[in-house]
Amino acid sequence: MQATTATTEVDAPHGIQARKEPGVARIEAMFRVFTNKRSHWLLYACIGLIVYVASLQSNTVFNFLVLATSSYGQHSLLGAITVANSILAAVVIPFIAKIADATSRPRTYLFALFFYILGYTMVAASRNVETLAVGQLFANIGDKGISLVNSILIADITPLKWRGWGFAMISTPYIVNAFISAPVVESILSRGPDSWRWGYAIFVIVLPVAFAPALGFLFWAEFKAKQQGVVVYDESTVRESHGVVAAVLHHFEAADTIGLLLLGGAFALLLLPMTLYNQLPGGWNNKGIIIMFVFGAVLMIAFGVWELKFCKKPLMSKRILNKTLLLAIVIDFFYYLGGYFRLLYFSSWVWVVKDYSYGEWTMFNNAMGVGLCAFSLISGAAIRYLQRYKSVQLFGLVFYIVGFGLTVYCRRPDPSTGALVMTQLLISFGGACSVVGSQVAAQASVRHEDMASAIALLSLWTTLGGSIGSAISTALWTSRLPMALAKHLPDVSAEQRALIFGSIDVARNSEPAVRTGVILAYVDTVESMWIAALVLSVVPFIATLFMDNYYLGDTHNAVENTLVSGEHVGKTAAGSDDEGSRSSMAKSDHSVPTEPAQKTSTV
């Protein structure tokens, strides 16, 4: 079949909406090739294998990064690396989403896997902190790409009522690996000071193996669909009629490349000085820092002018923007902004203040991930039962605020383990309810062909929120900790204080009298960061009050009456915020009779 880009025509077999982007058309065609449930469960299992290995990587590598930067005497650069990673991820996420739509989901997996392997190979072989940082940047592109394609695939193959549960299910391996990763980390790190390198090298080998079944299944599905002639979009037609270069330029324009570069450059120039100023002579008064701030402000203004006046396909396109998506962005933006005020140096603070072993420390760090994943299952089940998300989200955010309040309470020299663990659990419960709710709401509010863009847009601004939080936290940490060390350790030499500042291992292993002063300095340093996090935690709750509350039925989204296969089941029932009517939908071979998606302003 020949087709061009997306339209709203319905000229394909079985009422399938024709002329969509290749990635969307191919995944919908898979449902018409593999109609039996065993094939669907096989795909779930393949995705599950990827998620399992990726979660094991996530639960272990974060601990290695803290120690890797410390091994170079540059622990404070953890903030700069995190900020740079976040900014780069924010910029590349829309590109990756466009690749997923313009080509296919498995091709995007391969793209992400390439950067992942390249990055971790560089980190494992690094001999200086610069190589380590660059390797982390490449690996982060791959990691974000894998996570994004996982989210897109789950959204592709699940109806709205199961969407929250689907996202929760792909998180369940994190629960198991939180316990497995602790002995793994301890086993690797116990081999010597540079043994963290093996922690990276192992996943360079393991992850490609985990990807093989999913890639084989998805490419086989594409081959069968092409053989049977059910793929509505033929990419070769575009290449023949317009050329490969024209097609690439078209997708670069569709992804708003210029806007993304302006936005990424602006945030890099505005945020990175906050993490690097203490490395430069003169600190904040350094001319380079001032120039970066000025050019960052200029680029931010240029981004606004470009988007409003010149861009043909702006990043915040009117086609997908709606109240629900915008509020989801606000909720997650402040969730990550406040979250990183607490999270970035929290594990470092715990390592110095408490006497945990490597294994105990790893398990404590993983408590947040375990809670998020476990409570995601609960929130996903609640959303499935209620077929609404707003009340679940509000309920969780109350506990989220309480968790940050308890964190502020724990800022003392010898906090109890029970109180610290409770902060992790409360925040993770609220975070699970909020994140699942925002994802479902954002995806329900757009058509299938716009879904990847909506996911990318939400991820873009939430990642930037995390970048801002990381940058401010780093600025506070690097400015306040040296002063606090000087205050509480007046008899220690400046050189020794510099060593303590640069390495959490040196800080923790200092002689008892010195360590007491170090702990007091750490407590003073985190106070303002955690209080700010508590204040910001209220914003997501307020924004959720104004969120629309779509009904979650068997359709793929709440604005068009199509199933996950792209098959039409009746005229759309979505309407204004106050509409309360529901139209019936026809049965199909792929779904039971469904209640049409609609939204309401009630909780």
Describe the structure.
- The protein is globular and about 80 Å long.
- The protein is built from 22 helices and 2 strands.
- It has a single domain, classed as MFS general substrate transporter like domains (Growth Hormone, Chain: A, Up-down Bundle), CATH 1.20.1250.
- With about 600 residues, the chain is mainly α.
- The longest helix has about 40 residues, at about 450-490.
- Helix 16 (about 390-410) runs antiparallel to helix 22 (about 540-545).
- It has a two-stranded antiparallel ribbon.
- It holds the Pfam family MFS_1.
- Its main location: membrane.
- One of its GO terms (molecular function) is transmembrane transporter activity.
- Keywords: Membrane, Transmembrane, Transmembrane helix.
Q: Determine the fraction of residues in helical runs and give it as a percent range.
A: over 70%
CA(first)-CA(last) distance? 46 Å
Q: How big is the Rg?
A: 25 Å
How many helices? The count is 22
SS class: mainly alpha
Q: What portion of residues belong to β-strands?
A: under 5%
CATH superfamily: MFS general substrate transporter like domains
Major β-sheet profile: 2 strands, antiparallel
- Name the overall outline: globular
Overall mean pLDDT score? Answer: 80
| CATH architectural name | Up-down Bundle
Main sheet strand line-up: 1-2
- Which regions contain 5 or more consecutive residues with pLDDT less than 50? 1-18, 234-241, 571-603
Report the CATH topology name: Growth Hormone, Chain: A
Query: What's the CATH C level?
Result: Mainly Alpha
Question: How many individual domains?
Answer: 1
User: Using DSSP, what is the number of strands?
Assistant: 2
Order of helices and strands: HHHHHHHHHHHHHHHHHHHHHHEE
